[in-house]
Write a structure and sequence with these properties.
Length: 343
C-alpha cells in the first residue's frame, strides 16, 4: 500500500485525484491539503465524496508529509512544487507535479514563459505523457505531468511527424471551463460564457512551447505550432482540431494505420475510424484520449486529425495516477477503469 499526500486537494485536479485514488486499492490517501478549508471534511468542498472518503483537509506542512507519506501529488499553481521537491526526493518520496514547474528541460524557458524564478533548476523530470515516455517514467522519482492541451495534441502528431510540414501545424482547441481551475474568473462566469465561445491567448499561449519542445524530440528540425485555444460553455473536456500539411502523398488508410501501429497496445488511446470524429460525451469522466478524423483534402495536402480528452482526467489527474502506477510498478490501469459519461 502506498501512502499518498495531495497538495492542493481543494481544487479541481485535487478533487479528481481524491475521487480516483479513493477507488485505488493499492493507494491510501493520508494527507489532503488546503489552507482555506483546513479542518473541514473533504465533502465540505467535494460533495461527491461524502460517505466515500473519511478525511479532513489539513494545512500544508512539509514535515507531516515527509513523516506520513511515500508519494506526493502537487495539484497546485505554478511555482509551488519547485520549493519542496528536493526535500521530498532526498528522503526517497516520489512526486508527480501537475503544474508546469518541471515540464521544461531548459528552466530558463519556464522562467520566461511563466515569469517565475525557478528554485530547483537541477531537478530533471521526464515529461509525463505516459504512452510516449513510459520507459523514463518507470525509472523516475519525479514526473512532470503534461498540460491538458498538449496531452490532446502531442500524441495526435507524433505518428505522422516525419511526413508533415513542421513549420505549418495549425491547432484549434476548445476547452471546458474547469480548465481554468476552481477559483471564479470573469471568463468562467456563467452569463459570460453561457451560449458563447471565447477565443483567448490567440498568440503565445503557454502550452505552445511545451508542445514544440516535446515534438522536437522526434525530429531534428524546428517545429512551429500555430495554436488558438477557445473556452466553451461545458464543464469539462477538450476537443483539438489539428491541421497538418503533407510533404508526400499518403492515403487516409495509411495515416490511420500509422496511429494504430503507434498505439496498438495502449489501453487509454483509442483510434477511431476514418471520418469518425471524437466527441466529448464519449471521453468525459474517463482517462481516454480519442483520436479520429484522418481526413485528407488532397488539393491542399491538408490532413485533419481531431482529438478529445477530459481535461481533468487524461489531461491532469487520471494521467497523474497512470504515471504513479508506472513509477511504482503497479498495474497501469489501476484506479482508472472509468468509462465516458455519454450523454
Ligand atoms: N484544471 C485543469 O484542467 C488542469 C489540467 C492540467 C493541469 N492543471 C494544473 O494543475 C494545477 C492545479 O490546477 P487546478 O485547476 O486544480 O487549480 P485550482 O482548482 O485553482 O486548485 C488549486 C489548489 O492549490 C492550492 N494552493 C494554492 N496556492 C497554494 C500554495 N501556495 N501552497 C499550497 N497549496 C496551494 C489551493 O488550495 P487552497 O484551498 O488552500 O486555496 C487549491 O487546492 C495547476 O498548476 C494547473 O495548471 C490543471
Amino acid at each position: 500500500m502506498v501512502d499518498i499526500a495531495i497538495i492542493g486537494a481543494s481544487g479541481y485536479t485535487g478533487g479528481e485525484l481524491l475521487r480516483i485514488l479513493s477507488r485505488h486499492d493499492e493507494a491510501e490517501i493520508k494527507i489532503a491539503t488546503s489552507d482555506r478549508f483546513a479542518d473541514k471534511p473533504i465533502y465540505f468542498v467535494h460533495g461527491n465524496l461524502r460517505g466515500i472518503l473519511n478525511l479532513k483537509f489539513e494545512k500544508f506542512n512539509i514535515d507531516r508529509v515527509i513523516k506520513h507519506c511515500d508519494f506526493v501529488f502537487f495539484a497546485t499553481p505554478n511555482g509551488i512544487a519547485m520549493r519542496y521537491v528536493k526535500q521530498l526526493l532526498e528522503v526517497g518520496i516520489k512526486v508527480v507535479d501537475l503544474s508546469a514547474d518541471f515540464r521544461f528541460k531548459d528552466k530558463s524557458i519556464y522562467e520566461k514563459i511563466y515569469g517565475i524564478k525557478h528554485e530547483a533548476k537541477d531537478v530533471d523530470a521526464p515529461y509525463g505523457l505516459t504512452e510516449l515516455n513510459r520507459k523514463e517514467i518507470r525509472n523516475a522519482s519525479i514526473v512532470a505531468n503534461p498540460g491538458c492541451y498538449p496531452t490532446s495534441i502531442i500524441p495526435s502528431i507524433v505518428p505522422i511527424i516525419d511526413i508533415i510540414d513542421l513549420e505549418r501545424i495549425v491547432v484549434d482547441s476548445k476547452s471546458g471551463v474547469s480548465g481554468a481551475g476552481a477559483s471564479p474568473k470573469d471568463v468562467t462566469h456563467f452569463p459570460f460564457i453561457n451560449e458563447d465561445i471565447i477565443a483567448y491567448k490567440i498568440i503565445g499561449h503557454r502550452h505552445v512551447a511545451e508542445i514544440e519542445q516535446e515534438l522536437k524530440k522526434y525530429t531534428h528540425q524546428r517545429v512551429l505550432i500555430n495554436f488558438t485555444p477557445h473556452m466553451i460553455p461545458v464543464t469539462r473536456g477538450i476537443l483539438s482540431t489539428i491541421h497538418v500539411f503533407l510533404k508526400k502523398e499518403i492515403s487516409e488508410e495509411e495515416v490511420r494505420k500509422r496511429f494504430l501501429k503507434c498505439y496498438e497496445n495502449e489501453k487509454f488511446i483509442r483510434i477511431l475510424n476514418i471520418g469518425e470524429v471524437p466527441i466529448l460525451n464519449n471521453i468525459r469522466g474517463s482517462n481516454y484520449l480519442d483520436i479520429g478524423g484522418f481526413l485528407i483534402d488532397h488539393e491542399r495536402r491538408r490532413l485533419v486529425i481531431i482529438a478529445a480528452i477530459d481535461n481533468l482526467i487524461k489531461g491532469a489527474s487520471g494521467q497523474a495516477v497512470q504515471n504513479m502506477n508506472v513509477m511504482l510498478n503497479i498495474k497501469e490501469e489501476k484506479g482508472l477503469d472509468l468509462i465516458g459519461q455519454s450523454p
